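ok here's the first one, seq then struct tokens
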Amino acid sequence: MTEQIIPSDDVLLKAVQDTLVISTTDLQGVITYANDLFCKLTGYSREELIGKPHNLVRHPAVAKEVYKDMWDTIQAGKIWTGIIPNVGKGGVVYVVDTTVQPIFDAAGKITGYISVRRVINDLMENFDAVELSKEIFDEYYDK
């Protein structure tokens, strides 16, 4: 039997930081943290992002109802997920598989929000693979 080798927290954190777009906001949606990948992807410096509303990267084509649902969900203390196109500096468009969840203090009070996103532009270019996966998913769960 092969022994499990558990990576160090540093190795795990580096993998997360290198592959996921991460930001935090205060309760009003003002950016309080942006990782390097967020800055690189959007073309904004960290200084340009911190203190600005997160809707700075909102694509205008996304319906306001999507964001209302997100806010209603996270303000209720739940996790929200969705696939969202965003826009960076200069108009660059990127699509992200997004998870937003509340950050709680020790007393259980929501103190802010964290958004963890995976860029899925590659999936937009390989729709056949997405379509096949959806068919398999639907076939399994529609039983």
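and now the second one, same deal
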Amino acid sequence: MSTGHTPKRTPPMLRAQAVGARLGGVQVLHSLDVQFAPGGWTSIVGPNGAGKSTLLKVLAGLLPHQGSVWLGERLVSEWPGRARACALAWLGQSEQVVDDLSVLDVALLGRLPHQPWLGKPDAQDLAVVEKYLRMTQAWDWRHRSLGALSGGERQRVLLARALSVEADILLMDEPLTNLDPPHQADWLEIVRGLRAQGTTVVSVLHEVSMALQAEALVVMAQGRITHHGACADPQSHRALEQVFDQRIAVHAVQGQWVVIPTPSPRPTSSPSPISPPPQAPL
């Protein structure tokens, strides 16, 4: 797959300063500072419950938060809605979309920020959507309903919708959900093409080997950033292994960084026998 030869652009800087967030009355992000290199790809990784998805939603302006999120020289909250939607595209985790919509109509939702109020898609919108449905190998299903697709097929349609925005910054939360290995490789090629065009990509990934294909790595634990560095940096590898309790190891395989699971340590002593419950007096 290729994203074509669109001229390279310079997107605005996306950064967060002293950002915190609460969910259900619980503080889940704690005064985070992070910025993302324009035109680069950053992966966010960490164990379950680390706050990765929450951080991404805060960056997208989808959750109330403490602190500030900046897009260029303006707070994200100060951008007009249409302008922000054109600059920042979002692919969420397990997104809810009406199953009766056709694949084509779902992908066309990505063009709404470019259309006038109550306007209809024009020839340019249709051409853009066709480009990305073909890129994600979903064009042949364009007249089928979303509900008739498998989980992996559905994910490829939602990816096409996010790509159809043609935003300066693309935020993706678990974009590889339900994708088989060949289509994960296709996704990687798409992201590399976006980087070549100057698009900023920020992705939350559980596939840690895939995350290491990015330029930069943000490691999170318990609502805090424990490390932010280059994916090729040995310090990033040590931080990654540490956040997963040394249950993974980073190795170089054929010129790529690969994560291999390691067995859990065996107990050094036998567990204490369980005492029987006391008998009730007769």
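notes on #2: The CA atoms of residues 110 and 162 lie 6 Å apart. The mean pLDDT is 90.
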